[in-house]
């Protein structure tokens, strides 16, 4: 059971790094490039983070 914790931690770290890389890549794109893939600059975080970003944005107001 104790051996599972490091694996989960590593998996969480790998996921976090992949999301950070995706955010950086999308943020470096021009507005035209984003439009070509169906995104606006304001949608980048939700596109990468999914439900987690929407939940976090919603909790700011309520």
General description of the model:
This protein is mainly alpha-helical and 62 residues long. It has a domain at 38-62. It has four helices and no strands. It has helices at 4-28, 31-36, 44-49, 51-61. The radius of gyration is 15 Å and the shape is flat. The model has no long low-confidence stretch (mean pLDDT 87).
Please state the structural category: mainly alpha
Low-confidence runs (pLDDT<50, min 5 residues)?
A: none
The average pLDDT value, as a whole number, equals 87
- Give the termini distance in whole angstroms: 37 Å
Helix content: over 70%
| Count of alpha/pi helices | 4
Strand content: under 5%
**What is the H/E order?**
HHHH
Rg over C-alpha atoms, rounded to the nearest angstrom = 15 Å
Shape: flat
> How many beta-strand runs?
0
Biggest sheet layout: none
Helices and strands, with pairings:
Blueprint: H1 4-28, H2 31-36, H3 44-49, H4 51-61
Summarize the structure.
This protein is an all-alpha fold and 62 residues long. The chain has helices spanning 4-28, 31-36, 44-49, 51-61. Helix content is 77%, strand content 0%.
Keywords:
single chain; 62 residues; mainly alpha; 4 helices; 0% strand
